Structure formats: structure tokens, C-alpha cells
Amino acid sequence: MKTLFFAFRCSFVALIFSLFTITCQAQSAQQWQAGQVLSTTALGKINIDSCFTASPITDQIFKRIWLKSFKRDCTVPTDDLRYLRVLHINKDGHTQMGELICNKAIAQDLLDIFHKLYQAGYRIEKMRLVDEYDADDERSMADNNTSCFNFRKIAGSQKLSYHSQGLAIDINTRYNPCLNTRTGLVQPANGKRYAHHRINKKNQPIRFIDKNDLCYKLFIERGFTWGGSWNNPKDYQHFEKRNP
Ligand SMILES: [Zn+2]
User: Fold this and answer.
1) 39 C-alpha vs ligand 1 centroid, how far in Å?
2) What is the per-residue DSSP string for 130-174?
3) 11: CA distance to ligand 1 center in Å?
């Protein structure tokens, strides 16, 4: 009886300890600010899976996007959007906390894709909300920022972009610019030199997205369309899911 009681007490202590560990892990991942570079020591203490999360748009997040990416005439309810936090490997090879807002219909796709890209060491320079650039797409792209939701029209058109519904994402935007093949216009302007000669060199940290690229393969596997396959524009940074 005594042995039984001892065994019971041990498993109770083990249960409390593991609950405590889980709580600590969740807390530390949440404490990290978006954009923060994380040390190997800090990462070693937590479960990496707990760093890839999707949550509803809280009042705090809404304040950041209101009248920026979330315009007054926005037709997408906030209930349809999700705030994602994911890890990514930055240009220098360090782990960084990233953030995105997307449609809930593709939230799981993006969590899976960014988890795989992180594990593969795929470099993504920055991943902050476009609202950090006052929802100015040119500024965000020029800073090579990866982003998703922005209620806006397609550049040079009256049609709403898939970014308006959070169903399109732009990756490493300066190195994967958008080229208008008729006018020669390149967006962002500082990505001009990457619009034509897109041959990946061996040790180039940020890859040009092409059909051999891991990022391309992961998005295509999940039913996304790549803007680099279009005739005009050649939108190398852009993936969208039309029927999620
Ligand atoms: Zn785009």
C-alpha cells in the first residue's frame, strides 16, 4: 500500500512539473516581441512548435491596423482574419520572431509552410505587419518585408487585390520584385536589379523565388498560385489562394 501511495505521489509530482514546464514554455514564446532576434539559449528552453501560433484579432492588434491595412471601407470582418506569429531565419542566419495577418482560411497553410521553411533554414529577412510601414506597400517592399493582409487595390487597377482578403502573401519583396512586362515598371523601385537577372548563386542568403525553390514548392503543394508564373505582371514575391 505504501509503495502504491509513493508511486501515486511521484506521478502527481511529475504531472505538476510537466504542467509547469508547458506553462513556462507558452509564456516565454509569447513574451518575445515581433521582430526580436532570439538566442540559441532562449530557443533551447522552449518547444519550437509553440512558436507557430494563430489567434483571433484582439483589440490591441486591431488598434495597430485600423485606418492602415484595415481601412474604413474594409469589407472583410475581423472574425475572418488571424494574427500569426512564426519563427523565421533572417538574412544573417539568426532566428527571429515574425508576425503576419492573414485570412483564417489559409492560417493553417501558412503555419505549416513557415514551420517547414524554418526547419529547412530558408532565409526570410523581415516579417512585420505592413502597418509598421503605415500600410504603404512600396515602403514595406523596399524594406524587403514579407507581409500578407492589406486592404488595397491591385497596383494600377480598380480591382481589389487578394491581399485585401488576406489570401495573398508577398515574400522577400525586394529580392522578388513585381515587374510590369509592358511598361518595365518594377515595384519596389530598389528591387529593379533583381527583376531581370534571377540566377541563384550558391551562397546567396536570400534566394530568388523560382520553380526549384522550396518556398515555391510548399505554396504550390497547398493550392496557391505564384505570381512569377504570370505573363504580366511577373510578380515574383506573390502567392495567392483563390479557392481556399
Ligand atoms: Zn502580392
Assistant:
1) 31
2) GGGGTT-HHHHHHTTB-B-----BPTTSSSBPGGGGT-EEE-STT
3) 52
Residues whose Cβ atom is located within 5 A of ion ligand 1: 168, 170, 238
Quote the pTM value: 0.88
- What's the CA-to-centroid distance between 226 and ligand 1, angstroms? 10
Ligand 1 center to 201 CA (angstroms)? 25
% of the chain exceeding 70 in pLDDT? 89
Count the Cβ atoms, other than its own, within 10 Å of residue 7: 10
- Joined together, the cell numbers standing for residue 177 give 520584385
Sorting pLDDT into bands at 50, 70 and 90, what band is 23? very low
Assess whether pLDDT exceeds 90 at residue 24: no
Q: Are 180 and 188 in contact (CB under 8 A)?
A: no
Q: Are 120 and 107 in contact (CB under 8 A)?
A: no
Ligand 1 center to 137 CA (angstroms): 9
3-state helix, strand, coil in the chain (%, to 5): 40, 20, 40
Instruction: Identify the CA nearest to 151 among candidates 230, 77, 84, 243.
Output: 77
Q: What is the pLDDT of residues 117-131, one digit of tens each?
A: 999 999 999 999 999
How remote is the CA of residue 45 from the centroid of ligand 1, in Å?
36
Tell me how far the alpha carbon of residue 216 lies from the centroid of ligand 1, in angstroms: 14
Contact 111, 148 (CB under 8 A): no
Residue 239 CA to ligand 1 center (angstroms) comes to 7
